[in-house]
Amino acid sequence: MKENHCDKNKELLKVNGLRTHFFTDAGEIKAVNGVSFSVRNGETLGIVGESGCGKSVTVRSIMRLVKTPPAKIMGGEILFENHDLLKISEKEMQDIRGKRISMIFQEPMTALNPVFTVGYQIAEVILRHNKKLSRAQANEQALEMLRMVEIPDPERRIHNYPHQFSGGMRQRVVIAIALACSPKLLIADEPTTALDVTIQAQILDLMRKLKEEQGTSILMITHDLGIVAEMCDRVAVMYGGEIVEQGNVKEIYKSPLHPYTRGLLRSLPRIDQETERLYTIEGAVPNPKDLPKGCKFSTRCAQCAEKCKESPPEYKEMTSGHFVACHLANEVS
Amino acid sequence: MVWLDNKDVVWYKKKGVPKLLAGAVIVGLIVLIVLLSIVWTPYDPNLPNVSDRLLPPLSTGHNGQSYYLLGTDQLGRDNLSRVMAGGQVSVLIAFLAVLLSVVMGAVLGVMCGYFGKTLDNIVGMFVEIQHSIPMLLIIVMVLTLFGSSTVVLAVGLSLSEWLSIFRQTRAKTLVERKKDYTLAARVMGAGDGWIVFRHLIPNVMASIIVYGTLLIGTTILAEAGLSFLGLGVQRPYATWGRMISDGQTYMATGWWVSVFPALAVALLVIGVNFLGDGLRAKLKME
Prior knowledge:
The structure holds two protein chains of two kinds.
Chain A: E1 11-24, E2 27-40, E3 44-48, H1 55-62, E4 71-80, E5 83-84, H2 90-96, E6 101-104, H3 118-129, H4 135-148, H5 154-157, H6 167-179, E7 185-189, H7 197-214, E8 217-222, H8 225-231, E9 234-239, E10 242-248, H9 249-254, H10 259-266, H11 306-310, E11 315-319, E12 322-325, H12 329-332
Parallel strand pairs in A: 3-8, 3-9, 6-7, 7-8
Antiparallel strand pairs in A: 1-2, 1-4, 4-5, 9-10, 10-12, 11-12
Helix pairs in contact in A: 3-4, 4-6, 6-7
Chain B: H1 10-13, H2 17-39, E1 59-60, E2 67-68, H3 79-115, H4 117-132, H5 135-146, H6 150-177, H7 180-187, H8 192-228, H9 240-247, H10 256-284
Antiparallel strand pairs in B: 1-2
Helix pairs in contact in B: 2-3, 2-10, 3-4, 3-6, 3-8, 3-10, 5-6, 6-8, 7-8, 8-9, 8-10, 9-10
């Protein structure tokens, strides 16, 4: 707590009505369609949703890493420390990437360059953003980073190449690179999906520890609700390129308002309940080229009413900080 | 190479080592001898000596003092000195041409593979056009336009050879570009130039080195071929190709005139190919 010198409630990142569309031969695909959320200082926000719901495109838009063409950010604003990241130049963005906002990836096997030692790769980032440092000083810091991510025998390992590390160890190196410049925001795009369950737990513990130590905010993308429960303060549930529900993790797990969130939670096995067969949400994600006119979830929703098919629901605040986009939110909760 | 200094992976190093070693020894030896010829040859390679014409190997000259280890040619010039000096042109041209084509092919290949779009289309079009013109025609054209000197010859040869390096590098870059580490580098604040020169080129370097080494062999043969046709560096400077060509008239009476430069070419090409193969086996592991 004591290192939280900045205001806890201040919004570090605020995304307003972000829209990223893909222009393909088959037509325009609205991958991210009016997404709004915010990450506060020192907070962990989880974005959950199934494959193809637009969560990765959302964070890549924040980093301005979507490839244009085919993708294009059509609208909205991304306020990071009160600067709109969509309005600054690519050069300024390069200075922000890695220094203020960092990102770690799903696949630690390919996220490291195979021809350089891990020490070199960590030092490279440090030098990129601190031009005044000497190579020796950067190496010193790189060693410190390896120690911080708890890699055993860092003095020897710093001279190793990525292929000499296991998956979990590589992910630690990736985290070390991401945190080398003490960024304010760390974006983690399914950081543990490619790892064994035991290693997953270790990596998550490490991330939580580092977050506490450095006061970094984390934007965690995952499809694993267990990770959200363990790691996040707040969660945003995405479906069909939109956020359907957002709020405090505890509250959402206790009283989910959106039928999709309820479905997701019901399809998890629970330790305190005897379940014969797990619940599944019927149907599949609608084709992004041909989304339903009304609520995006209406094609799969058990409670779907007439108005759901006709008009998209409003995104409204039900209780303090708990947002939902559902016509029936009042009635069914 | 540099990226294997750990004791844990020492067994990897043994792979391809005999070939690599044999190649390095052969090439090193030939290059050393050729370098030596710049400062010292047994006799002046270009000085005719009519009284010692077409002496077989291991014979003594007319004056009773000169000793010709590899015999003399049709003008009585010492064959050993000529083989040594002839290597200067061949080796220089081969290395220069390969260096030029590697730089040109690798840089353009990585850039086209990385940026794609317009640049790739334009360069790709030129490559296609050049592919439709026979290589010999291009070289003859360059040589007639600029005269035949070492540099022109090297440029001409590299013009015909950079295509294969370009294709190889471009294809490899397309694979590497898709890997997360380029994205990771971007995420860490790297620009295009940084990614191309600090990440992609080092990664495609291994295959470029191997391919470039093998290309040296091809280039030596090509240069010898051109000299054989009379398109190479002009008389009186000895080149291996010209010596083979000149000697073929005397095949019946003085086989040594063309056989020794031919042996030198063959040996160097074999050595270079061993080197390339050994490197490939060694760099294959990651």
